[in-house]
């Protein structure tokens, strides 16, 4: 940790360990707030969001008044995210696809429709509000579904084209979506459950995995080797998965795969091969616990490091587009997705996830799902379908869609 003065503002620079320490403290604070503030519990606001967003808001006030600023080294954020998705892969049994095949396909199609609609909405509203289509493009699925990665990548490309605000707008739109998806997903699912009196006890149990052998868990826990084996397994899968993704991205020109894709898909392979061979003694309860931990760490760091003042600099037309995107996603989930997926508890939980990754990112979707299921009960169906589609399969449709929309925006401005 160090102190400096940047642009006349006292700045606290936290190294990676300091950033992680603050994130963990905020996670504990968020958990405390959730247990003691009725609003947070009632609307299923995740603990990392409660603690991290509270800090981001305070940080924004301090920065805007010129009192204090924080700079973070988020080195642990990416490994936590990759480890989380590796756990998702290890927890994914492909046997479930046959049992939930129809819902899986419908959910994927609905997500693709959402991407197209967001792109069209952003371009149409850019012409209505008078903002350059190239900026409107950044307020569509590029950042709503694509998140900070695509927002930063295409924002920089737009900046290089001579539009100086490109990168700032891209990151600000992604931040807006991240906050919106985190704050609205849980309450939306909670509303559906209460309004339609959805019964958590009727959740689809076909996705449940056989319980671990209690005697095996007891033996492993006594020597602490149960946890160590799982940590080692996850670390190895992350390493090999990252290597494979890097090589694949090199071979496929013009395509960059997210770092977590390798760990997640390799985790799926290891899990399902091991289901046949039984070489590794993997315990679902241990994987679930590690998955929740890695998600909480990632999301806490992500939320606390948000620079909310970037939203203040957005022009009114851009804010109109962003609020329209939020309204559209909520209406789409309520009146299109809810009836098509089936008006039941699993669907309500899945839609909490849809809002999370439809406006923000996959970890937000999982955090929304976890927040709802912590209150009402598990939904193995939602936890299976949402992560594997949102984290990887959806990119197969998203990236080409973004490129097409980008070129449409360029042609509208005579730059194509």
What's the helix and strand layout?
Blueprint: E1 2-6, E2 9-14, H1 16-36, H2 38-42, H3 47-64, E3 69-72, H4 77-90, H5 95-99, H6 101-129, H7 133-138, H8 141-144, H9 147-160, H10 166-195, H11 214-223, H12 225-251, H13 259-277, H14 284-304, H15 309-312, H16 316-341, H17 345-359, H18 362-376, H19 380-393, H20 395-412
Task: Name the features.
4% strand; 3-stranded mixed sheet; 76% helix; 3 strands; globular; single chain; mainly alpha; 416 residues
Outline of the structure:
Helices cover 76% and strands 4% of the residues. It is mainly alpha-helical and 416 residues long. The termini are far apart.
DSSP E strands, number:
3
Radius of gyration equals 21 Å
Query: What amount of the residues lies in strands?
Result: under 5%
Name the helix and strand elements from N-terminus to C-terminus, one letter apiece: EEHHHEHHHHHHHHHHHHHHHHH
| Unreliably modeled segments | 211-222
Distance between the termini: 47 Å
Classification by helices and strands? mainly alpha
- Spatial ordering of strands, largest sheet: 1-2-3
**What is the number of helical segments per DSSP (H or I, 4+ residues)?**
20
Average per-residue pLDDT, rounded, comes to 86
Major sheet characteristics = 3 strands, mixed
Shape annotation: globular
Give the % helix: over 70%
Task: Note down, in words, how this protein is organized.
The chain has helices at 16-36, 38-42, 47-64, 77-90, 95-99, 101-129, 133-138, 141-144, 147-160, 166-195, 214-223, 225-251, 259-277, 284-304, 309-312, 316-341, 345-359, 362-376, 380-393, 395-412; strands spanning 2-6, 9-14, 69-72. It contains 20 helices and three strands. The protein starts with a strand and ends with a helix. The protein is globular and about 55 Å long. It is 76% helix and 4% strand. Strands 1-2-3 form a three-stranded mixed sheet. The model is unreliable at 211-222 (pLDDT under 50). The protein is mainly alpha-helical and 416 residues long. A hairpin with a 2-residue loop joins strand 1 and strand 2 (9-14).
């Amino acid at each position: 940790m160090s102190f400096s003065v940047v642009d006349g503002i006292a700045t606290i620079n936290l190294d990676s360990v300091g950033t992680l320490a603050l994130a963990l403290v905020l996670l504990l604070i968020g958990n405390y707030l959730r247990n003691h503030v009725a609003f947070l519990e009632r609307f299923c606001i995740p603990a990392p969001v409660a603690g991290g967003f509270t800090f981001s808001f305070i940080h924004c006030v301090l920065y805007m008044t010129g009192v204090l600023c924080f700079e973070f080294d988020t080195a642990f954020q990416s490994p936590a995210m990759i480890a989380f998705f590796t756990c998702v892969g290890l927890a994914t049994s492909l046997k479930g696809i046959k049992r939930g095949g129809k819902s899986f396909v419908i959910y994927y199609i609905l997500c693709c429709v959402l991407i197209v609609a967001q792109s069209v909405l952003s371009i149409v509203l850019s012409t209505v509000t008078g903002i350059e289509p190239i900026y409107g493009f950044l307020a569509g699925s590029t950042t709503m579904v694509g998140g900070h990665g695509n927002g930063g990548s295409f924002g920089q490309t737009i900046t290089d084209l001579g539009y100086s605000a490109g990168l700032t707008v891209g990151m600000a739109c992604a931040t807006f979506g991240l906050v919106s998806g985190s704050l609205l997903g849980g309450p939306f699912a909670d509303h559906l459950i209460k309004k339609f009196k959805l019964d958590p006890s009727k959740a689809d149990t076909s996705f449940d995995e056989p319980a671990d052998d209690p005697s095996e868990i007891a033996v492993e826990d006594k020597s602490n080797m149960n946890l160590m084996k799982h940590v080692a397994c996850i670390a190895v899968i992350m390493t090999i998965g990252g290597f494979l993704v890097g090589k694949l991205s090199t071979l496929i020109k013009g395509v960059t795969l997210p770092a977590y894709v390798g760990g997640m898909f390799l985790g799926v392979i290891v899990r399902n091969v091991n289901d046949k061979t039984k070489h590794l003694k993997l315990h679902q309860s241990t994987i679930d616990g590690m998955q929740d931990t890695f998600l909480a760490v990632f999301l806490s760091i992500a939320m606390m490091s948000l620079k909310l003042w970037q939203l203040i600099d957005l022009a009114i037309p851009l804010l109109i587009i962003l609020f329209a995107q939020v309204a559209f996603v909520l209406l789409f989930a309520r009146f299109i997705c809810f009836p098509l997926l089936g008006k039941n508890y699993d669907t309500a939980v899945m839609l909490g996830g849809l809002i999370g990754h439809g406006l923000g990112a996959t970890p937000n979707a999982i955090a929304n799902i976890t927040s709802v299921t912590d209150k009402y009960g598990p939904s193995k169906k939602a936890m299976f379908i949402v992560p594997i589609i949102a984290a990887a399969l959806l990119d197969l449709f998203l990236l080409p869609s973004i490129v097409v929309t980008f070129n449409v925006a360029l042609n509208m401005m005579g730059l194509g």
